[in-house]
Amino acid sequence: MPVEVDQWFTTEKPGFLWKAEVAVAPGISMVGRDKYKDGRGLLLIKALGLVAVADANGADVDQGTMLRYLAEIMWFPAAALNDYIRWEEIDSLSAEATMSNAGVTASGIFRFDSTGDLRSFEAKRYFTRETGSTLEDWFVQVEPDGYAEFEGVRVAARGSVTWKLQDGDFTWFKLEITDIRYNRREIVR
After folding, report:
1. What pLDDT digit, counting tens, does each position of 133-154 carry?
2. Strand bridging mode 15-25 / 4-10
């Protein structure tokens, strides 16, 4: 289903707010909010903006939103330099990033091509089912020609998000970034 999303990030103290609206049928829509603040994740999705169909928080959600933030620094690459992210080279085309915030730590692997473009991000992330959450392989892939420039910053703008589950791959989100606005602060000395 097509979805329109607005998302805001903070980098000094890592966080995001994601707001989405999707038409599931004529006259029926769902609105969603996903938030990462002070190391905690909160997800709320409502049918018709009234009835909660998903309301999640807790340690599994905290880890998942932290990994989402880590993966999404591809859109604001300067965040990769913050002290809350530690980098370790795996080989010439991949590095493991470990993020720590508010007592939670999560790691993922960024893979690049020979030109330095990001190709993918992968991590173990909690997948929620009716029977509970399980740690599964989570894979974010950038399309080979999926780069665009926004305000002079070249970033990955088209890709997909896939759960690599035991019973098969589940690509649950295909994305295209159509606009980014950076809020730059100038430092005066």
Report:
1. 899 999 999 999 999 999 999 9
2. antiparallel
